[in-house]
Design goal:
Layout: E1 3-4, H1 6-11, E2 22-27, E3 33-38, E4 56-61, E5 64-70, H2 76-87, E6 94-95, E7 98-100, E8 104-107, E9 142-145, E10 158-161, E11 174-180, H3 182-189, E12 193-195, E13 202-205, E14 210-217
Parallel strand pairs: 1-3
Antiparallel strand pairs: 2-3, 4-5, 4-14, 5-11, 6-14, 7-8, 8-10, 9-10, 9-11, 12-13
C-alpha cells in the first residue's frame, strides 16, 4: 500500500504547488518493497525562483521520512547548494554511513552508492563551499555541513544532530532543522554499529541506512 507523505508535509508547513502525486517504489530491509506517494519535486525549476525559507526537502529513508526547513538568512550558499543537489537527484540512493547515537548521523556522500565501504566519507559534489559559520546552535534536529580540518572544505556531506553538541557551535555551518521526522532520526540513531577496519570509532551501521530520495517541496517566490 502506498505511503502518503501528505500528512507530515502538512505538519511541516510545506505547501508545494503540486498537482498530481507521483509514486516511487522503495526497497526496505529484508528485501521487502513498498511505494511512496510524493508530489512533483521541481526538478526543472530554477533554484533562484524558489523561496528557500518556505521550501522544504523530504529525506525519504528506509527508517522513515525526515522533513527539513532551511535558514538561508544564516547560510545562503549552503542552503542553495543542498536544495540544488536534492533537486538534481544527487542524494538519491546514498546511505547514512556514520551513526553516533546521542551525537549525530552523517550522510550525503556519493561514494556510499557503491559497495566499497573503504571510500565512505571521502566523496563530494566536485566543489567546496566557503564556511558560513553562524549562531545556530547544534541541538537535536539541526542539519550542519560535514568538513575536514579546512573550514572551507564542506561539499555535499551533512549531518543531523541527535543530541546537544555545543562544541560544534560556530565551527560548522548549520543551515536547517528537522520540522518533522524526529522519530525517524531516533530509529536511525539506534541502529547497531561497528568499527571500521583499523579504527576505534564504532559508527558504521551494520544495517544499511538508505536515503532513497531527497524530495524538494518547492515554494515559488
Amino acid at each position: 500500500m502506498p505511503i502518503d507523505l501528505s500528512g507530515i508535509l502538512k505538519r511541516a508547513g510545506a505547501r508545494p504547488t503540486a498537482a498530481k502525486p507521483v509514486e516511487i517504489e522503495l526497497g526496505l530491509p529484508g528485501g521487502a518493497r513498498s511505494k511512496i506517494s510524493v508530489v512533483p519535486d521541481f526538478k526543472k525549476v530554477d533554484i533562484d525562483k524558489l523561496d528557500l525559507t518556505k521550501t522544504r526537502v523530504a529525506l525519504v529513508t528506509n527508517f522513515g521520512t525526515m522533513v527539513v526547513a532551511f535558514r538561508p538568512d544564516l547560510a545562503p550558499k549552503t542552503v542553495r547548494s543542498f536544495v540544488k543537489l536534492s533537486r538534481d537527484g544527487f542524494y538519491d540512493g546514498t546511505r547514512f554511513h556514520r551513526v553516533l547515537k546521542g551525537f549525530m548521523i552523517q550522510g550525503g556522500d556519493p561514494n556510499t552508492k557503491d559497495d566499497d565501504p573503504s571510500n565512505d566519507g571521502t566523496g563530494g559534489p566536485g566543489y567546496s563551499l566557503k564556511a558560513e559559520f553562524n549562531n545556530l546552535k547544534h541541538v537535536r534536529g539541526i542539519l550542519s555541513m560535514a568538513r575536514s580540518q579546512d573550514p572551507d572544505s564542506a561539499g555535499s556531506q551533512f549531518f543531523v544532530m541527535h543530541g546537544l553538541s555545543p562544541h560544534l557551535d560556530g565551527k560548522y555551518t548549520g543551515f536547517g532543522s528537522l520540522v518533522d521526522g524526529l522519530d525517524a532520526l531516533d530509529r536511525i540513531a539506534n541502529v547497531e554499529v561497528k568499527a571500521r577496519s583499523g579504527q576505534m570509532e564504532r559508527s558504521v551501521p551494520t544495517t544499511q541506512v538508505w536515503l532513497h530520495r531527497a524530495v524538494v517541496l518547492g515554494v515559488l517566490k
